[in-house]
Specification:
6-stranded antiparallel sheet; 1 helix; 42 strands; immunoglobulin domain; repeat; Myosin-binding protein H isoform X2; mainly beta; Ig_sub; FN3_dom
């Protein structure tokens, strides 16, 4: 089988026939071919004219060329079937352009007994009877491109496999091949700076250059706000790859949407450019503007006869000495209305509505100012603020404020402002003491010893002490209630103390008797209360038993017991009094 290959037939003229194949140079590897010429010496569409006949010179015949088979136009019926190959398979058109056509096929099922030497491609133009060979000599390719065709050519295609015995039956393409001009869909490329609103001043020129694509040359149409252009003011020049719209002196009426439409055989592409012309027209008065980036604030000194306070307001730049200049001066109108929504603490909430006249351009925002009623000076709070509601903070307590709002666009601030009718009074709020509710706590508890008695050894004749600490119902001090001092003539109760508690009024106190535990001292489980040899002391929960000049007889187990209404507790210790040594 023949391997799949792609080739383009070499250029050749119609005068090169099969009988003259011996004088044709070998086919190059490129395989490119030109369309065969029409009868009568005329060149086939898209091809070059036949070269003029060269001077005749005897040339010896090439023996290898005579052996090459001629390109047949029909199958010889006398040839045996097994000697010639069968017809190629799957003949199809791969690509058609405005000057070439590419066809492909598959090798035949039978290559013949003598083998395959190549393929011959032939064309038959519409209305003609003869087939014209594209390649005179067979080519071992399965894809061939025919070039130098003319737009409008119509022809049939067939291909035949060739062996040394001759050409086999051809494979004919049933459909007609038509060479047509390639259509490139229109496309518009809008420059980056024109994708946003294109802003110009009155009197400046407008020059828009919009490139586009399309083949053949498309039809270009411009419209302004959906209507045709005014040819007296707007000029349009359209080339093969771009379209230019030019206005020598722009006016405010030139603002709007300019739409470019590119049409090509039922296909179209559209692009829109928004143009905004700002400035004053002929006959309009010139107005001085504050600087566009923000608000210029300056002090205005009053005259000597005027006792009004110094005003801090909107400053205007000095007028130019030349009055012939006519620059842009189209400022927006002030906000339609403004009102004070709410006043709380040191804040005031404002709301306003956008202006009815934006000055034929987009608003850059609003400038909010405040003025104190005492001084009358205006201070800028917000600049180029876009929302229509705001909150003014950090107002001084005790002052009354008024507010005003300016509109701002590319030309500057509005000539006037919308001011609030009512004043915002910042009132000092009363401080009301709200004491926390007091939850009375129960301080009473059963006795418990925090420090027990310790065993002790003493010497006869020297007084000794036994100590421990007990906790039960602690005292409530006056300082804990926020009082500097507290005095009372009430006697100290027996077995308790007076507790201080808040009364019904914050400046009043109530007294509650808190029971203290009763302390009992015992020796060997015998009560020793009232014995003059022992003295019991109790101070701030510390219980002390003093034994005066003990003797060995005072040795034993001593117990301290604390008792109150909630319970009792006791601790023990052993006291040993050593006898003195006798000599």
């Amino acid at each position: 089988m023949t391997e799949q290959a792609t080739s383009e037939a070499p250029a050749c003229g119609l005068e090169e026939t099969a009988s003259e194949s011996a004088h044709v140079p070998p086919t190059g590897p490129s395989g490119d071919t030109a369309a065969p010429q029409a009868p009568g010496g005329k060149q086939a569409p898209g091809g070059e004219r036949a070269s003029e006949p060269q001077e005749s010179a005897p040339q010896p015949p090439e023996p290898e060329a005579s052996a090459a088979p001629a390109a047949p136009t029909a199958t010889d019926p006398a040839l045996p079937r097994e000697d010639v190959p069968s017809a190629p398979l799957l003949l199809a058109v791969e690509d058609v352009s405005d000057s070439s056509v590419t066809v492909s096929w598959e090798p035949p099922e039978s290559l013949g007994r003598l083998g395959l030497q190549g393929y011959v491609l032939e064309l038959r133009r519409e209305g003609a009877l003869d087939w014209e060979p594209v390649n005179v000599r067979p080519m071992m390719v399965t894809q061939l491109t025919v070039r130098n065709l003319a737009v409008g050519d119509k022809f049939f295609v067939r291909v035949a496999a060739v062996s040394s015995a001759g050409a086999g039956p051809p494979a004919v393409l049933e459909q007609l091949v038509h060479i047509q001009e390639t259509i490139e869909a229109p496309k518009i490329r809008v420059p980056r700076h024109l994708r946003q609103t294109y802003i110009r001043q009155v009197g400046e020129s407008i020059n828009l250059q919009i490139p586009f694509q399309g083949n053949p040359k498309p039809q270009v149409l411009w419209t302004h706000n959906g209507h045709a252009l005014d040819s007296q003011r707007v000029s349009v020049r359209t080339g093969d790859q771009d379209s230019i719209l030019f206005i020598r002196s722009a006016q405010r009426s030139d603002s709007g949407c300019y739409e470019l439409t590119v049409q090509l055989k039922g296909l179209e592409a559209k692009a829109a450019v928004n143009i905004l012309v700002i400035g004053m027209g002929p006959g309009e008065a010139r107005a001085e503007l504050p600087p566009a980036p923000g608000l210029m604030v300056k002090r205005v000194r009053p005259r000597e006869s005027d006792r009004s306070p110094i005003v801090l307001g909107v400053g205007l730049p000095r007028a130019q000495p030349s009055s012939s200049l006519s620059g842009p001066a189209e400022k927006p109108g002030p906000p339609s209305s403004i009102r004070l929504l709410d006043v709380w603490s040191c804040n005031a909430a404002l709301e306003w509505t956008p202006p009815q006249d934006t000055g034929n351009t987009e608003l850059l925002g609003y400038t909010v100012q405040k003025a104190d009623e005492k001084t009358g000076r205006w201070f800028t709070v917000l600049e180029r603020y876009h929302p229509t509601t705001c909150t003014v903070s950090d107002l001084i307590v005790g002052n009354s404020y008024s507010f005003r709002v300016f509109s701002e666009n590319l030309c500057g601030l509005s000539a006037s402002a919308a001011a609030t009718k009512e004043l915002a009074h910042i009132v000092k709020t009363d401080v009301v003491a709200k004491p926390k509710s007091f939850v009375e706590r129960d301080f009473s508890e059963a006795p418990s010893f925090t420090q027990p008695l310790a065993d002790h050894t003493s010497t006869p004749g020297y007084s000794t002490q036994l100590s421990c600490s007990v906790r039960a119902s602690p005292k409530v001090r006056a300082g804990a209630l926020g009082l500097q001092s507290f005095q009372t003539t009430l006697p100290k109760p027996e077995g308790g103390l007076w507790g201080l508690h808040p009364g019904p009024h914050p400046s009043q106190l109530s007294l509650t008797l808190l029971p203290q535990p009763k302390i009992i001292w015992m020796k060997n489980k015998m009560d020793i209360q009232g014995n003059p040899k022992y003295r019991a002391l109790s101070e701030q929960g510390v219980c002390t038993l003093e034994i005066r000049k003990p003797s060995p007889f005072d040795s034993g187990v001593y117990t301290c017991k604390a008792i109150n209404v909630l319970g009792e507790a006791s601790v023990d210790c052993r006291l040993e009094v050593k006898a003195s040594a006798t000599h």
